[in-house]
Amino acid sequence: MSGTTGASSLPGPPPAPADAVTEAFWQATREGTLSVQHCPACGGHQHPPRVLCVHCGGIDGLRQVPVRGAAVLDSFTTVHRAPDGRAVPYTVGRVRLAEGPVLLAPVLGDPDSFRCDQPVRLVWLSLPDGRRQPAFTPAPDAPPDEPEP
Ligand SMILES: [Zn+2]
């Protein structure tokens, strides 16, 4: 698995409290497991957790299933001026998991080195209430950028 950093280094706004729909996701994070919601009716995966399947509309049997955390950085934005005085810069990425669903999550590292479609790996950030925030950082074995044609 991966390392965990303290809450004082949490970039960006803190996640919302868990509720009835998201509790299973957050509970898994306490054990260092990233999960997405699976629909038994159509086999679809989705994130964030919802009361119905976005693929087929099914409402029965939706449950969290673990994912590997392998992902690519679809897109990202780096915040240089935060509205509430928190430490900047920080980067929030749209991260596409190998299983398909997309997460919005902090991206750790040098913002100048981030590239779209870059492989990233999962890391965890500790939250004060014991949950962990999934975050991503460039994968160490990421292939070098292709030269411009
Ligand atoms: Zn479905």
TrEMBL record:
Pfam families per the UniProt record, alphabetical: OB_ChsH2_C (PF01796), zf-ChsH2 (PF12172)
Organism superkingdom: Bacteria
Ranges where the ChsH2 rubredoxin-like zinc ribbon domain occurs: 26-58
Domain ChsH2 C-terminal OB-fold: 65-124
PANTHER family: BLR3430 PROTEIN (PTHR34075:SF5)
Designated name of the protein: OB-fold domain-containing protein
Organism: Streptomyces poriferorum
